[in-house]
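Researcher: Please translate sequence to structure tokens.
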Amino acid sequence: MKKVLLVLVMAGLLMAYANPAPKPALAQARRGLFTSSAIETSTALVLPAKTWVYAIRLFADQASSVPGLYNTATLGGATASTVKAEIGEATQFDTEEIKYNPPINFPNGVSVIMSTGVLLIDYGATP
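Model: Translation complete:
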């Protein structure tokens, strides 16, 4: 009886090492699903509804570069009540970055308005 039990235990251990449990996927692996878009000085961008923003990076080409991200599908809807994210840099030629964990959901779409500088937005589908 002990030999049978020992054989079963050894067989179980061999099976466990031969077929290890799958490793969980890291959240970092999903970052490859987003797209980056550049917004240049004094231009605007509208992204579709249900967009998730993962990160924003600002490259200031003048002092006081300030972009805003608004939860609206039109530039006309970009108001103080629809702003969801802002980033600013007071020093010319400096950069600023914000990574959102978890990402920010924009159910109505994303409208971006820039004063000066270049803004990179990492965005994508549901995380």
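Researcher: Any highlights?
Model: DSSP finds one helix and eight strands in the chain.
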